[in-house]
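Replying to the earlier thread about multi-chain prediction with a worked example.

Input:
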Amino acid sequence: MSKFTSLISATLLLVGTATLYTLFFFYIQGQIAIAAQARLDASGIEQQDQFQSSVASLLRNTDADRTELSSYVSNDSNIVNVIQSIEDRATLDHVTTKIISVAVGAAKWKYHEPLTITFSAEGTFSALTAFATDMESFPQASHLAKINAQVSTNHLWTATVTLEFLKEKAQPPTQ
Amino acid sequence: MVNLLPTQLQKRLTMLYFVRLLSAFLLLLSVSFFIGALFLIPAYFLASSDAKVQTAALSLTQEAVDKGENGGAAGTLAFYTERVSILKDYVHQPVVAQIFSTLTGNLPKGVSFNNIIVTPQSNTTGAITTAGVADTRDSLLTLVRALQGVSIFKGVSLPFSSLVSETNISFTLIFTYSLP
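Result:
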């Protein structure tokens, strides 16, 4: 047995040193990979920050334009004003109106949704025509979705008008 | 030279020789690994500290970006990009007055409308449904021919069922418009 002692000892020593070397090697490799990934991530974040800075700068430079643009879009707080504008315009055009429904349509977009206002309007044919033109030329982002005009009584016409407005969503989506 | 040792002893000595040779080789290999490991020690510390520094730097960068005022800029840009894109679709030219006046302008004597429905489908196109009463077939056909002659109206045709009665004919016309 004693004649193999040196061989066994050398083998054990080799296993020990080889294990030590391998552990060191892979640990160092792992640390290098961690550092490289951190550098890459930091670089990506910096680039993202630079992009956001440039976007923020663009937004600051277009602040006035964006405010003006926003005045064309309805939101929860000014729906009443929109309805009031319709009624005011009807009064000017000698048309009697009655709001039938106000409903938010199916969301087609991420930050905006269509707001549909349906109302009836009664007046002479020419008054209704002028009123329809006014509704089509509404200062806010909107379009006439449908007008259904029918003869009622005493040469008066009654129209059911559906207007679709662009409305900002009350709850912005989570990013 | 003749080996006078007994054969068994010769074999034993040969075996011992190879065992020791192998032991020496393994020892040398172990020493090589050990020296290699010693040389890796500086790299070990350098790599460890570099990984720590880079990870800390990443955290600091992330914190700085999170605390920055530009956080929602990309979202705001997306919001306004969508708004501008949608607003283009909301630019519609007024059509109802033009359609109403064209319809009534082409109304022959003895025909009247009692219902006009206009459904715009895009900025320049849409559908029209009209209903009314005509005193005679001729007056109704005159209306249809007049509307067929209007360039913005497409697909004006009279259903045969509207020609069953000779007088006091109720009719419905369904067609489209396409503005230039």
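Chain A touches chain B through 67 residues (CB under 8 Å).

Feel free to reuse this layout for your own posts.
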